[in-house]
Amino acid sequence: MRILVTNDDGIDSVGLHVLARALVSFGEVVIGAPDREYSGAGAGLGTLHLLQPEVRRVHVDGVPEAWSVTGPPALCVVFARLGVFGGPFDLVVSGINPGANTGRAIYHSGTVGAALTARVGGISGLAVSQAVAGFGVEGQGWDDMLDDQHWDTAAEVAVRVVEAMAADLDRGPTVVNVNVRTFRVTASSAGAGPRSPTSRLARWPAPSSRPRPGTRACSTCTWSGVIRWCCRRTRTAARSKRAT
Length: 244
Known about the structure:
- By secondary structure, the chain is an alpha/beta fold.
- It is built from nine helices and nine strands.
- It has helices spanning 14-23, 48-51, 73-81, 110-120, 151-167, 187-190, 196-202, 219-224, 229-243, and strands at residues 2-6, 28-34, 55-60, 63-69, 91-98, 124-130, 136-137, 140-141, 175-180.
- The longest helix has 17 residues, at 151-167.
- It is globular and about 45 Å long.
């Protein structure tokens, strides 16, 4: 199986490298990623007559083939479909993005945009994002908050999802958007069995897209489409007030 790994954070992103190395066991993994940050690019290709995109071979430890593209992630996927990186690909995996891509963020996420572009071209796409332990806006996280990011956890979850997608490739192209919390998998947190990271994630409640009755979302939550800690605090205060 041939897998294209891309992202919207650039070819030097740690999350990109960790993800690509985790997928090497599936077959032929090729990195084709932007030469710089393209967060918020969505599925845009850019103004090609102005960009005049170039493709350069680069080195990434643990990955046999990697290319840097002077353009957004969706363009990297289009180049892959056109054969710039060799033969046809069976799957496109985009990530690991530092910052969750949920709610309205998926409309302009370059991480998700790459997966959607793959689907348009008849290839299944997987977008992998990981929450940042700090303040993040619309699928983005500040660099100084990424020092304690547990990339390996998101990569392990991505491996489980790729296993499932690889088994169903014959059913036609699809898009999967995965968001992982940042935590370290240990013997006590993982439990028994190889599927424990995804099982642990499945037990967490999904983020609500709207506030509970009796409260209203603040401007940040309304903008992002996800109820964050600020509105959870508002709900707690509302319940306390009603109790008195």
